[in-house]
Structure formats: C-alpha cells, structure tokens
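Table S2 (continued). Query chain:
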Amino acid sequence: LQKLIHLLQATDDPLIQEQALITLGNSAAFSVNQDIIRNLDGLSIIGRMLSDCIPKVKEKALNALNNLSMNIKNQEEIQMYIPQVCRNVESAPLNSDLQLAGLRLLTNMSVTSDYHHKMVNSIPCFLHLLAEGTERTQIQVLKVLVNLSANPAMARYLLRAQV
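Corresponding output:
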C-alpha cells in the first residue's frame, strides 16, 4: 500500500494513476487496509487527484474514496473534499461514470447528518439530475436525497430548492 501511494505521488502518467487508484480502492474493501491507507496519508494524496483534469483519474479517485469512506475516521478526513465532489458531480457529463462515482461517495458521506451542511448548495443540482438523469443516476441521487431528508435541519433546504 505504501508503494502504491508513493507511486501515485510520483507519476503524472494517467494510466498508472488509474491502476494505482483502482488497486487502492480494491484494497480498501478490507477494514484493516482502510486504516493503513489513512495512516500513510493516502486519503489526502487520493483527494488531490480530484483536481486532476483527466476524468478517468477523478473517477477512480472518487471510487477509491468511496470505498475508504466506510470508516468513520476516514470520513472525518474525506469530508473536506465534499464541496469539490459536489462540483465534480455538477460539472460532469450527465449520467457519466464520473458523475455516478461522485454520487456514490456523497451517498456514503450523507448516511449520517454530520456533513449534510456541505451538500446544501448542490440540492438544486441533485433535483435536476433526478429529473434529467437515467435510471442509474436517478437511483443514486435518490439515495443522497433520502439521506438528506432524514435530517430535519435539511427540510427547509430541500423544500425551498430552485430547480
């Protein structure tokens, strides 16, 4: 894991970055690896990949963070990327794998109400995706919206959202 994280930092080759992110994401399926990746500063290194201009690299970084977000301590670090993930969802092509990867991460990050406030500005986008997206996109958006709606503090934002 340490070598993968160093490789991710050391290369600018998008194909190598994608493969390293896929491997880190798969490794995160095991809870012990989630802690190791966090302790090796892997979350911030993967998080920096969200700024990459290559959509496939962003998508793989979102997928890796999604798997890593199954851990409360990891969520505490990943939450700082929520605004950027929301921007990626909004700017990604409709129904793209990049958009779906962002929505999956937001679904995990919205299971508890701890980070709902960071998603408020994206509610109009979520409602737009619900109206315009394919069934796969709609299902993923609904998961986020259901999680947000479980928080009474979000009711006014959901009901007042301009679509």
